[in-house]
Design goal:
About 20% of the residues lie in helices and about 25% in strands. The protein has helices at about 40-50, 65-75, and strands spanning about 1-5, 20-25, 55-60, 80-90, 95-100.
Length: about 110
Protein backbone atom coordinates (compact mmCIF):
# COMPACT_ATOMS: atom_id res chain seq x y z
CA UNK A 1 0.00 0.00 0.00
CA UNK A 2 1.30 3.40 -1.02
CA UNK A 3 0.05 6.89 -0.26
CA UNK A 4 1.07 9.13 -3.15
CA UNK A 5 1.45 12.72 -1.99
CA UNK A 6 0.51 14.76 -5.05
CA UNK A 7 2.74 17.69 -4.14
CA UNK A 8 5.02 18.05 -1.16
CA UNK A 9 3.95 20.83 1.21
CA UNK A 10 6.82 21.93 3.43
CA UNK A 11 5.80 22.26 7.05
CA UNK A 12 2.68 20.12 6.71
CA UNK A 13 2.63 17.10 9.02
CA UNK A 14 1.30 14.13 7.06
CA UNK A 15 2.34 11.51 9.63
CA UNK A 16 -1.26 10.29 10.05
CA UNK A 17 -1.29 9.27 6.37
CA UNK A 18 1.27 6.54 7.15
CA UNK A 19 -1.65 4.58 8.65
CA UNK A 20 -2.72 3.96 5.04
CA UNK A 21 0.64 3.03 3.50
CA UNK A 22 4.16 4.09 2.68
CA UNK A 23 4.44 7.74 1.62
CA UNK A 24 5.77 8.67 -1.81
CA UNK A 25 6.00 12.23 -3.14
CA UNK A 26 4.94 12.68 -6.76
CA UNK A 27 5.90 16.35 -7.18
CA UNK A 28 8.39 18.14 -4.93
CA UNK A 29 7.62 21.49 -3.33
CA UNK A 30 9.98 23.23 -5.80
CA UNK A 31 8.30 21.82 -8.92
CA UNK A 32 5.34 23.43 -10.62
CA UNK A 33 2.93 22.25 -13.25
CA UNK A 34 4.17 23.95 -16.39
CA UNK A 35 2.33 27.15 -17.23
CA UNK A 36 1.93 26.44 -20.92
CA UNK A 37 2.03 22.64 -21.14
CA UNK A 38 0.85 19.94 -18.76
CA UNK A 39 2.56 17.19 -20.79
CA UNK A 40 5.80 17.07 -18.76
CA UNK A 41 3.78 16.64 -15.56
CA UNK A 42 1.52 14.03 -17.17
CA UNK A 43 4.56 12.05 -18.37
CA UNK A 44 6.05 12.11 -14.87
CA UNK A 45 2.75 11.07 -13.24
CA UNK A 46 2.28 8.26 -15.79
CA UNK A 47 5.70 6.93 -14.81
CA UNK A 48 5.24 7.31 -11.06
CA UNK A 49 1.65 6.00 -10.95
CA UNK A 50 2.17 3.12 -13.41
CA UNK A 51 1.44 0.55 -10.66
CA UNK A 52 -1.37 2.46 -8.93
CA UNK A 53 -4.03 -0.01 -7.73
CA UNK A 54 -6.98 -0.45 -5.35
CA UNK A 55 -4.62 -0.67 -2.35
CA UNK A 56 -3.15 2.80 -2.95
CA UNK A 57 -4.26 6.31 -2.05
CA UNK A 58 -3.71 9.84 -3.31
CA UNK A 59 -3.07 12.53 -0.72
CA UNK A 60 -4.53 15.60 -2.45
CA UNK A 61 -2.09 18.37 -1.53
CA UNK A 62 -0.50 21.15 -3.52
CA UNK A 63 -1.25 22.76 -6.87
CA UNK A 64 -4.89 22.15 -7.91
CA UNK A 65 -3.76 21.48 -11.50
CA UNK A 66 -1.36 18.80 -10.28
CA UNK A 67 -4.11 17.28 -8.12
CA UNK A 68 -6.47 17.09 -11.10
CA UNK A 69 -3.80 15.51 -13.28
CA UNK A 70 -2.76 12.98 -10.61
CA UNK A 71 -6.36 11.91 -10.00
CA UNK A 72 -6.94 11.53 -13.73
CA UNK A 73 -3.80 9.45 -14.25
CA UNK A 74 -4.46 7.28 -11.18
CA UNK A 75 -8.03 6.59 -12.32
CA UNK A 76 -6.87 5.71 -15.83
CA UNK A 77 -4.21 3.34 -14.47
CA UNK A 78 -6.78 1.62 -12.24
CA UNK A 79 -9.81 1.12 -14.50
CA UNK A 80 -11.54 4.34 -13.45
CA UNK A 81 -11.10 3.84 -9.71
CA UNK A 82 -8.95 5.60 -7.12
CA UNK A 83 -8.90 6.24 -3.41
CA UNK A 84 -7.91 9.48 -1.73
CA UNK A 85 -7.31 10.74 1.79
CA UNK A 86 -9.28 13.70 3.10
CA UNK A 87 -8.18 15.68 6.13
CA UNK A 88 -10.74 16.10 8.92
CA UNK A 89 -9.90 19.17 11.01
CA UNK A 90 -12.15 18.16 13.89
CA UNK A 91 -10.47 14.80 14.49
CA UNK A 92 -7.05 15.85 13.10
CA UNK A 93 -6.92 12.66 11.05
CA UNK A 94 -7.14 11.56 7.44
CA UNK A 95 -10.06 9.44 6.34
CA UNK A 96 -10.38 7.51 3.08
CA UNK A 97 -12.72 8.32 0.21
CA UNK A 98 -13.08 6.28 -2.95
CA UNK A 99 -14.11 7.25 -6.44
CA UNK A 100 -15.32 5.05 -9.26
CA UNK A 101 -15.65 6.97 -12.50
CA UNK A 102 -17.29 4.02 -14.24
CA UNK A 103 -20.62 4.19 -12.44
CA UNK A 104 -23.70 5.38 -14.29
CA UNK A 105 -26.13 7.94 -12.93
CA UNK A 106 -28.44 6.21 -10.45
CA UNK A 107 -26.34 3.02 -10.33
CA UNK A 108 -25.69 1.66 -6.85
CA UNK A 109 -22.14 0.37 -6.24
CA UNK A 110 -21.08 -0.87 -2.81
CA UNK A 111 -24.19 0.64 -1.26
CA UNK A 112 -23.55 4.12 -2.70
CA UNK A 113 -25.32 6.01 -5.48
Amino acid sequence: MTVYIVQEMRGRDVTDATNFGDLEILITAEEQTASFSTQPTIRKLNRMLANFNDDDYLLLTGDPAAIALAASVAARQNNGRFKMLKWDRQTAKYFPLSANLNTKLGEIVNGEL
